[in-house]
Amino acid sequence: MLKTNSIEKQTPTAYPIYPLIEERWSPRVFSNKAISEQQVKTLLEAGRWAPSSSNQQPWRIIWGIKGTETYDRIFNCLHKFNKGWAGNAQVLWACAFKKDMQNGTKENFHALHDLGLFMGNVCMQATSMGIAVHQMAGIDFKAAQKEFNFPDNYHVATAAAFGYYGGNPHELDDELKKQELEKERSRNPQSEFAFNGNFQ
């Protein structure tokens, strides 16, 4: 585990879980350490081996390393709120999925789920490398679709910011800094989402 984290986060799990899952979290500040193209392709390779419905692999990723034109093009598609912090990330992705099956005759209702599985693999691989991932719904999907020439049967669903743990939270505005410095992560208890029987 290569993680060097200047902010300690506690994950109060009800049951023991795999350490990479317990240690992963989504900062809004990152260290200045660069991420190489080889490291980006390692992350993509981890995602590549995610399961998908009928092995359709509907995910499509546009990636850019800080200092490149592609990075700036992705950044320009982000919503204003995310532009306020994401510029300190070393890598940006725009994450899309193909909405129909390979032959184009019917909708792929599982494509968004499969993109999520792809990014789950990416997040675990990144955490093992000491790299943090912050995923964002705040991307102008219409602007991104046009900017990157996606056909109509693709949807740009999310963006993701990557950087090594260890950024300075005092670079953020007061509200985001408060969130960043919170010691304990939180999740809904299992009783609110998992039912051994009927939905409750």
UniProtKB/TrEMBL annotation:
InterPro entries, per the entry: Nitroreductase (IPR029479), Nitroreductase-like (IPR000415)
Region (Disordered): 180-200
UniProt cross-references to Gene3D superfamilies, sorted A to Z: NADH Oxidase
Protein name, entry field: Nitroreductase
Family (UniProt): Belongs to the nitroreductase family.
Source organism superkingdom: Bacteria
Native source organism of the sequence: Marixanthomonas spongiae
Nitroreductase domain segment(s): 21-70, 82-164
Keyword Oxidoreductase included in the entry's annotation: yes
Biased composition (Polar residues): 188-200
One Pfam short name: Nitroreductase
Any GO MF annotation of the entry: oxidoreductase activity
Keyword Manganese part of the UniProt annotation: no
Keywords: Oxidoreductase
